[in-house]
Description:
Blueprint: H1 18-30, E1 35-38, E2 42-43, H2 44-60, E3 65-66, E4 77-80, E5 83-86, H3 92-103, E6 107-115, H4 119-124, E7 129-133, H5 136-144, E8 150-153, H6 163-170, H7 176-184, H8 188-199, E9 208-211, E10 235-236, H9 241-255, E11 260-263, H10 266-274, E12 278-281, H11 288-297, E13 303-305, H12 318-324
Parallel strand pairs: 1-3, 1-4, 4-6, 5-6, 6-7, 7-8, 9-11, 11-12, 12-13
Antiparallel strand pairs: 2-10
Helix pairs in contact: 2-9, 2-10, 6-9, 8-9, 9-10
Amino acid sequence: MTLSYDTRPLVNDPQAWDGLRHALQSLQARKPARLLYVPNEGNAGDALIAAGSWQFFDDMGLAPVYAKVRDIRAGDALIYAGGGNLVPEYASCSRFLERCLEVDVDSVLVLPHTIRGHEALLARLDRRFTLVCRDQASVARVQATGTGAQVLYAPDMALYIDVPRLFAQCERYRGLAFWARMAHHDRLAPYLRWRLALLRRAPPAHLHLDVIRVDAEAIAALPGDKRWDMSNLYGSKFRLREESDLVTRDFLRFFGQLVAVRTNRLHAGVAAALMGCEVTYLDNSYGKIGAVYDAWLSHLPQISFDRTPSAGRPASAGLAGAAVQGAGA
């Protein structure tokens, strides 16, 4: 299969990453031998975030070591993966921050997140903590808590992905040692099931697809079909770079077969845009997608955001209706 993709960066301001880059350089300078990376468990969309993060680290010459929350010790310098986890719907990032406070770490940086709720926890954070927000609403909410943490603003890490470079990186993941490593970490069987699930989902003939979420962030007025909620077809704690890179590659390849996508999955839209598709965004249950779109994606002609009151209605015709009739981030 021959795939085309858009080689232009999704973020049109290269300086948008500067604050994050400087903060990570400072973190590395403080603890060059004890820099740890705690991944964010999630779905295939979180794999894209991880893949973009590791490309960013590569470009900085940064090599943090994977760690689990229970492994955190006093004096550690920590990076927590980006995402949408520091909201009331989920608890992984808040548990990470609680652990950091308990054991008296040296310094912490949370990569770009949507942040809402958790006000009491945020108010307890001090200058050792840096919270990077991926939208302006999150910046305002964090600052309103009176937190002592430093607050930065940067794009979602998936927007950093260089597609040809990612595909080339994935070509290096081969051989018995690689597959043994996947099996050792109990990721071989889940990964093979993911690949099989993608193979069973042939896109509709007109190559337009609705990808509507069916999870905790779904909207009642916009019911999705779980067969086509592609992000939700994979779940992991993403403790291997190889895993997140390969899941991202597969995700991109799937969307590379399409010409248009309508979705309330942030990273399904990102994957589609990276592969040259037209993307129409709808919002999730609490406004995350609209905020990120306004911050970083509204300048792109191939990406639009449907703000009409009827945008949350069940799809019944055209692009959406045909997608829902097909076979099942």
